[in-house]
């Protein structure tokens, strides 16, 4: 959601509740072996989310090489996290999203 909220919904979509707010914009997520949500947040990078906190796992891939627009993520069975970054030049702020 543009608000940064991630909603938890009943299977029949009868109720929605805010699970977490990242302060960014989550475009994809998966779960690790411990049940933590690992999120691709276009504005903040890769996040680990549980009901108590949101923390940045990584927001750059190397010195002077930020993750600019992460949009998809998969956590493999061995724990390796694979993600895609939609742009090496532009971040959401460059498109007017703050």
What attributes characterize this protein structure?
98 residues; four-stranded antiparallel sheet; two-stranded antiparallel sheet
Folded structure, characterized:
Strand 9 and strand 10 form a beta hairpin. The protein is 0% helix and 49% strand. By secondary structure, it is mainly β. The mean pLDDT is 87. It has strands at residues 5-9, 16-21, 26-31, 37-41, 45-49, 54-58, 60-62, 65-66, 70-75, 81-85.
Model regions low in confidence, pLDDT < 50 over at least 5 residues: none
What is the helix tally? 0
What string gives the helices and strands in order?
EEEEEEEEEE
Shape descriptor reads globular
User: Would you count the extended β strands for me?
Assistant: 10
Gap between N and C termini, in Å? 13 Å
Determine the structural class based on helices, strands and strand pairing: mainly beta
The residue fraction in helices comes out at: under 10%
β-strand percent reads: over 45%
Question: Mind summarizing the main beta sheet?
Answer: 4 strands, antiparallel
Mean pLDDT: 87
Radius of gyration: 14 Å
Give the strand order, joined by hyphens, for the main sheet: 3-4-5-6
Produce a short descriptive summary.
This protein is mainly β and 98 residues long.
List the helices and strands and how they pair.
Layout: E1 5-9, E2 16-21, E3 26-31, E4 37-41, E5 45-49, E6 54-58, E7 60-62, E8 65-66, E9 70-75, E10 81-85
